[in-house]
Each structure stands twice: as structure tokens, then as C-alpha cells.
Amino acid sequence: MHKLNFKQEITKVVSLIHNNFRSAKKASKLRIEQVDEGYEVVKIANIGLTPPLGLEGAIVLRGDYGGEFAMSAFSGEVAKHIAAFRSKNQENLPTVYNMIEQICEESELLLVKVKIYPSGGALCSNLYFVGKKEVILRNFRASDAIALASFYNVPILIRKTLLEQTAKQSK
User: Does residue 121 contact residue 113 with C-beta atoms inside 8 Å?
Assistant: First the structure.
């Protein structure tokens, strides 16, 4: 019973923090609805594990205009976290994501969007935060950025060229 009260109190505090940042987001140059011309907002269409062992994650990102991008070769554990976050199961937050959550709370920062882009032979991401100051974390693993976007329910943007390449390959 004590744990339930503690959890309720934490939920209230997190809610208050998010409410306080709404005004910061409105004043920010990094608006959630701001979309760069070279990017499209995508949603997670499918998430799963690749056969036969299920050690690698696979995800399909779908744009509002029908373009899709399939991504694989990332940790199966990250894929499981993304699936859990999408189903609103946020109780067993992995240590690294918990660390980011605590840093954001202490620094009064809120993740507002992530951008996925190709870099060499890999996919990278930038994470955009607002609060007391605006912060952009650059060149992080795309799978982790998608996991954080799922956890915080923020937009995922992907380079349009990636969606266009996939469309051309499927024709």
C-alpha cells in the first residue's frame, strides 16, 4: 500500500513537471509541430524481433503519406522496450533511459522530438529538448531515439529521402 501512494505521488510530480514545460514549449524555437522540409513525421507501424533467434529488433516506420521505412539490426532488448512503451507499460524503465529521465527532471528539460537520418552506413538521430534552455543531442543511435520518443510520446521525424528510397525499391 505504501508503494502505491509513493507511485501516485511520483505520478503527480511528473504531471506537474510536464505542465510547467508546456509554457516553455510554446516559447521555444524548437516547436513540436515545427517540421523541417527535408523530414517527414512517421509513426511506428510495426515492431518485432527478427527470426530465427529473435536477438535483433526490426521496426517499420510509416509516414502520413504512405511512405515506409524498415529498420533492423538493432538490439532485440530495445525493440521490446519500444513495444512496451507503445502499450503504455512504462514501469520497468531501463537504467539508461531512467538516467535520461532523471537528468531531464533535474535540468528541467523535456524531449520534444527526435530526427532520424543516415550517416555513413548507419542510422543516427538528434534529440531535441526544451526547458530552461534548448538542447540538441546529436549523433545518437536511432533505435534509442525511437525508444525515447515512444516513452515520451513525441514525434519521430525521418529524412524524406529514406522514405523515398524505400518506395523506389518496392516498385
Answer: no
13: number of Cβ within 10 Å: 11
Percent helix, strand and coil across the chain, each rounded to 5? 40, 35, 25
Output the pTM of the full model: 0.76
Mean pLDDT over 97-103 rounds to: 87
Q: Structural domains in the chain?
A: 2-170 (3.10.690.10)
Cell of 51: 527470426
Q: Contact at 8 Å (CB) between 171 and 66?
A: no
Name the residue type at position 170: S
Number of Cβ atoms within 10 Å of the Cβ of 84 = 19
Q: Is the pLDDT of residue 78 over 70?
A: yes
Q: In one letter, which amino acid is 115?
A: K
Please, what is the Cα angle at 40 between 35 and 46, to 5 degrees? 135
Helix and strand element counts for the chain (H, E):
5, 7
> What is the H or E stretch that residue 159 is in?
strand 156-159
| 112 confidence band (pLDDT: 50, 70, 90) | very high
* Beta carbons within 10 angstroms of residue 20's beta carbon: 12
